[in-house]
Design brief:
By secondary structure, this protein is an alpha/beta fold. Helices cover 44% and strands 21% of the residues. The longest helix is centred in the first third of the chain and has 21 residues, at 42-62.
Length: 377
């Protein structure tokens, strides 16, 4: 009786050869994600990460190619804690790991110092940091993927004057790069619109008690109060406004548009808080509802402020790499500046500083503790 040798070793060997050939035809591109994954703003960092992750999964499914090799994007997400020192450490870590494309940071205070590290490491940065200084560094591979403070702060000043018919305003900021920047832009445009700034107050981004500030504001009786800062402080401030019967509107930038405002502030934010956020109303634009549904299905939660913006930019980067036929960030950046890309949240066309040429802005208020869009500009 003749014994037939088992085919198993041959099958295993063939599988290894095929796997080796597939790996040889694949090029891995690491995508860094940096944002607050811990602390009060962790909800935003995770939302940004999810937007990037969703785009990466779709890009990988397309099997884009460069120089005959299939591109595979891999995400490396890091917690910068919205802290400048931590953000610089994270930047160095990503650069040392050979990461050439970085999505983030979320906070301007991180984006400003970390950008230098990324630039020196030859990496491209796509950030939602809105402070004007973020794009004033002259870095050719840096893109701001939403409206900047000059647009956000100015739009709220215009809304206060033209829609709310405000004549006087008090300004409060949390002394972060973002808070100071957006507050300064509000003041500049408010004065141009004829508003009188009757007071300025200061807090910090870890504060919980605003009674002294609010007592001063109550005595001044401003038509509106502008707050430059983040939702984890703005929401309890709104609650304390209600408790102290401070009868004024709270205006703010994009960070106040977060669902976190409603979660933390409850009914106190209803038709009291008004905010401006970069991007169009997702419910009112062609791809918005489909994106929201896709995001909800994938992550079992609703998209927050910038998931769509990070998703759009990641798709743009991936397709630009394929078009340019290279993974070199400088050449890909040149490709990205050639034309425009219409994504979910807007049309991405960049000037020589990395700012969007036309960044849409939507003004919101809150109803039933939910951000409700009022108008887009």
């Amino acid at each position: 009786m003749t014994t037939i040798p088992s085919a198993t070793p041959w099958v295993a060997a063939l599988a290894l050869v095929l796997a080796g050939n597939a790996a040889a035809q694949e090029q891995v591109i690491k995508i860094g994600q940096t944002g607050p994954l811990s602390g009060a703003n962790a909800f935003a960092g995770k939302d940004n990460e999810n937007g990037v992750r969703l785009a990466i999964e779709e890009l990988n499914a397309k099997k884009l190619q460069v120089a005959g090799k299939t591109i595979k994007f891999e995400l490396q997400s890091e917690d910068d804690q919205c802290d400048p020192k931590s953000g610089v450490s994270v930047a160095q870590k990503l650069v040392d790991a050979g990461v050439k494309y970085v999505m983030g940071p979320y906070c301007s205070g991180v984006a400003i110092p970390a950008s230098r590290v990324y630039d020196e490491g030859g990496a491209m940065v796509s950030t939602v940091g809105t402070n004007p200084k973020v794009t004033d560094g002259g870095y050719k591979n840096l893109f701001r993927i939403i409206a900047g403070d000059n647009q956000i702060g100015a739009s709220m000043a215009q809304y206060a004057a033209k829609v709310l018919n405000a004549k006087t305003a008090v300004v409060v900021d949390d002394r972060t790069a973002f808070g100071q920047g957006v507050a300064a832009e509000f003041i500049k445009e408010a004065k141009a619109q004829g508003l009188t700034i009757i007071g300025q107050e200061y807090t910090h981004d870890k504060a919980t008690d605003f009674s002294a500030i609010l007592t001063n504001i109550k005595a001044k009786k401003p038509d509106v109060m502008f707050y430059g800062g983040y939702a984890p402080q703005a929401a309890p401030m709104a609650r304390q406004m209600k408790q102290l019967a401070v009868n004024t509107k709270m205006l703010g930038g994009d960070t106040l548009c977060s669902p976190e405002m409603g979660k933390l502030g409850g009914e106190a934010v209803n038709e009291v808080v008004y905010c401006a956020q970069g991007g169009s109303m997702l419910d009112k634009i062609a791809q918005g509802p489909a994106f929201k549904a896709k995001y909800k299905k994938r992550f079992n939660q609703d998209a927050d402020a910038y998931a769509a913006s990070f998703y759009d930019q990641m798709i743009l980067i991936g397709t630009s790499i394929a078009k340019a036929g290279t993974t070199d960030p400088s050449k890909v950046a040149t490709e990205m500046r050639k034309g425009s890309y219409t994504g979910v949240a807007g049309t991405y066309a960049y000037d020589d500083k990395g700012n969007m040429k036309q960044a849409p802005i939507t003004v919101y208020t809150f109803k039933n503790a939910q951000a409700t869009p009022l108008a887009s500009y």
